[in-house]
């Protein structure tokens, strides 16, 4: 891939989408951009530092053996935790360190995943199976010890131009076809998508689907598109007053610019609000119905029961498939 092709690929992601990706998927876009450059230069624009598992304490189900800390020359960093699962297989997951090692956003996400793990531990029966995007599933397995349906990314789903980038950081892909089924289900109407999952999933198991705001960008990447092309748009609004409510009129003005749109919000640590807007088609997809969009809150999806929803703007939620 030459420089012109790289620029064309990245130009599809405008500044707002880039910011949203960095905020919501922990810098994977930064990985993509940096490793494209790294293939053309002898010295990569990031450093990797190994730390012992006790370098910082996070209450995961499996003990962490070591961390790989990626620091980028331009901006940003992230942590990959390595551990042995119940079968003594080496596994990994993207993890958010608490303060003072992590940022304010990292600290919030770390505490959310701790909270999620407590809820799963108290309410998920022993025969549970969790369904979620590959990176979310990896993190869920590390924190809860639960069995996940999708263990890793599938190179047939991720755009070919970035396959080698994911392998560079996250190891070899696992091509089971399951991620393709989940992507198709998320992008189908809610009833069709839910039925698609039920047909693919094992019977006589307690089934839970874990959905995050990250999945908007994850799904777009799987189809080689931007969130905007999938019917989702995001915008950052300054916080008006002491809490999120003072900014609602400004947000609603933007939401109503698109006919029949719905939205959900997250208050950021930077005294700003992240708003996602979904058009009529997007809000009727399985992903749209599982996210805490205003349209979904007014008309909850039949066939699933909410088990958990995070306090931070519905960043992550878990549903039991009935």
Measured distance between first and last alpha carbons: 46 Å
- Spatial strand arrangement across the major sheet: 6-5-7-12-11
Structural class: alpha+beta
Q: How many domains make up the coordinates? A: 1
Secondary structure tally: strands: 12
Low-confidence segments: 1-27
Chain-averaged pLDDT: 84
Separate helix tally: 13
Question: In this structure, how is the largest beta sheet organized?
Answer: 5 strands, mixed
Keywords: Membrane, Transmembrane, Transmembrane helix
Organism: Methylacidiphilum caldifontis
Transmembrane segments: 17-38
Protein name: Hydroxylamine oxidation protein HaoB
Defining traits:
single chain; 322 residues; five-stranded mixed β-sheet; 13 helices; 38% helix
